[in-house]
């Protein structure tokens, strides 16, 4: 297992990146919460290689439960991996940051992001490598301007790298976070998601590394302004009830459909770090239906029928400077 | 699809049985609850064949959420079925009763039972048939006498049919309801579970039909006395908190591991009827650990290490009459 534990340029850079990003995000979330702080659990995989830093926040002023986790793990390629991940090779290395934040206030959306890097080895050499990641938003009440701001932030990042990215990754995201057992209802209003991006001639490893870094830090630009705008909206028991019903859908997606969660749970991953994604309090009512014409029904409708959040005309008019003025940059 | 919709002796008997049992159980549960009544949703599979009667109860004095469902469904054998269920044949028929009850009071256990019958057809003839079923108990606080009573009730039924059944079906149950991702913690204290029981020379279809009927009606003997004994125990917020944490484990098992749930959700089953099994309110805390030496820790310990609830010596001494006196027969 020597190969998987030795360094190379991209691996080393990636490990620094995810830990720096973890620090930056935790610091900012603590600052805005003003009450709760992250508690860190370091864990090791034992007989297998590597481990992680799980950081959880709970019962804050704003954040009811959240985790910002990093893991740097490696090992021998197993038969299960060959089958389920469809990979060859002898050893593997994977490192990533994974984040889920569940706010108290139903008017503040839940958010998830994940950025990961994978290497495969044969005969002691890197035989393959790829990048994946994304960020998606799960509101309980729909504010169109928030959805547009969130998508616009990632579109702008994408456009700096490749104009084809945003439409592709937006669609991949809409197609992935789907409760197929609920008439293809989406988990939320999406964002971007990309996977298995292997370095090519033009878009080499440095390119994908840069893209992941830009997307990773954009999390703060994309999410924090929404938190600040919605955190003080008064809410009542009915709003909370609806949030908990929708959190049930989040649980359903993560446990029934999310490949990473299921693979982790079935292959001896660290359960508590994987399931930190689950919301703190949840309701499962039989056949719950929001009232027709209500804000709750509007949210459900948008999850059933994802839409384009960027108005192309506006976008064409907006240059990078204008976009920068609109976004409350935080890093 | 004519064959799957025509009658035969066992199919007809089974359909009558599950609906009679549904009526009997709902009636008894309503009587003991004293407030809530079951609401029935009849549904049809549309283009496919058959449908069901979903009966749900909620916000009762005793029962916070529950469902007692029957379904009678049939259709063509699909590729998915061939693969996942490992069956051949051209048409299939399945009918069953499925029940999950989540009480308000954390001192009253959750209970699940399911009895089902399956037929496969080739060339218009029944080519194969089998029976399956079981009942298992999920307490939040352990009362050893309740666990013993529950297991004793089913052991006595089993013994009337075959002395080998109880140990076998108890083990099958302990081996099935397992959160493998939580150090093989069981969902509860078990019960009995049997599957794919095909009629043989001695134990013919009438035998298995009789066994399912005896087990099905034993539900009331097994569960109601426990409800009556525990329903008025005062509980506080801490007890409820623990119940909701444990309900989280119930959700994890049902959505991550339960073959029936996952198969149903991924093959266009009726989602609301399948997910009626999920508890009404649930908590997912990061790395929740009960206090050492507490009643909560004792419950967790018994889920990690299933035990034999029947003391063989006592049992040898107990004849059927004595057992009958001990059990508060309800049907």
Question: In terms of topology, how is this protein built?
Answer:
The structure is a homodimer of 331-residue chains.
Chain A: H1 2-5, H2 9-33, E1 39-44, E2 49-58, E3 63-76, H3 79-84, E4 91-103, E5 110-122, E6 125-138, H4 144-161, H5 165-176, E7 178-179, E8 185-186, E9 190-197, H6 205-230, H7 237-257, H8 259-266, H9 271-274, E10 281-283, H10 295-304, H11 312-317, H12 320-326
Antiparallel strand pairs in A: 1-2, 2-3, 3-4, 4-5, 5-6, 6-9, 7-8
Give a structural overview.
2 copies of one chain form a homodimer. Chain A is of the alpha+beta class. Helix content of chain A is 44%, strand content 26%. The first copy, chain A, has helices at residues 2-5, 9-33, 79-84, 144-161, 165-176, 205-230, 237-257, 259-266, 271-274, 295-304, 312-317, 320-326, and strands at residues 39-44, 49-58, 63-76, 91-103, 110-122, 125-138, 178-179, 185-186, 190-197, 281-283. In chain A, the strands form 2 sheets. Chain A has a 7-stranded antiparallel β-sheet with strand order 1-2-3-4-5-6-9. A two-stranded antiparallel ribbon of chain A has the order 7-8. The longest helix of chain A is centred in the middle third of the chain and has 26 residues, at 205-230. The radius of gyration of chain A is 20 Å and the shape is globular. Strand 10 of chain A pairs antiparallel with strand 10 of chain B.
């Amino acid at each position: 297992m020597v190969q998987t534990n030795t360094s190379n340029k991209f691996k080393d850079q990636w490990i620094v990146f995810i830990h720096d990003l973890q620090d930056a995000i935790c610091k900012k979330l603590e600052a805005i919460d003003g009450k709760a702080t992250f508690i860190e659990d370091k864990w090791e995989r034992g007989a297998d290689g590597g481990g992680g830093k799980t950081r959880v926040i709970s019962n804050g002023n704003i954040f009811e439960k959240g985790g910002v986790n990093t893991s740097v793990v490696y090992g021998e390629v197993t038969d299960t991996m060959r089958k389920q991940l469809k990979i060859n090779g002898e050893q593997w290395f994977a490192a990533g940051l994974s984040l889920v934040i569940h706010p108290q206030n139903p008017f503040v959306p839940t958010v998830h992001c994940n950025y990961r890097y994978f290497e495969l080895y044969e005969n002691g050499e890197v035989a393959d490598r790829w990048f994946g990641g994304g960020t998606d938003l799960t509101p309980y009440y729909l504010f169109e301007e928030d959805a547009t701001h969130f998508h616009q932030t990632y579109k702008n990042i994408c456009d700096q790298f490749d104009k084809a990215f945003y439409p592709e990754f937006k669609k991949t995201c809409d197609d992935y976070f789907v409760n197929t057992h609920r008439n293809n209802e989406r988990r939320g209003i999406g964002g971007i998601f990309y996977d298995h991006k292997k370095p090519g001639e033009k878009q080499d490893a440095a390119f994908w590394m840069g893209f992941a870094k830009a997307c990773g830090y954009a999390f703060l630009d994309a999410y924090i302004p929404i938190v600040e705008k919605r955190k003080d909206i008064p809410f009542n028991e009915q709003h909370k009830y609806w949030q908990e019903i929708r959190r049930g859908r989040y649980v359903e997606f993560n446990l029934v459909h999310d490949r990473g969660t299921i693979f982790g749970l079935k292959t001896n991953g660290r359960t508590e770090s994987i399931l930190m994604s689950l919301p703190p309090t949840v309701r499962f009512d039989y056949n719950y239906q929001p009232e027709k014409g209500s804000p709750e029904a509007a949210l459900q409708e948008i999850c059933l029928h994802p839409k384009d959040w960027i108005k192309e005309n506006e976008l064409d008019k907006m240059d990078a400077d204008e976009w920068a003025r609109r976004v409350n940059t935080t890093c």
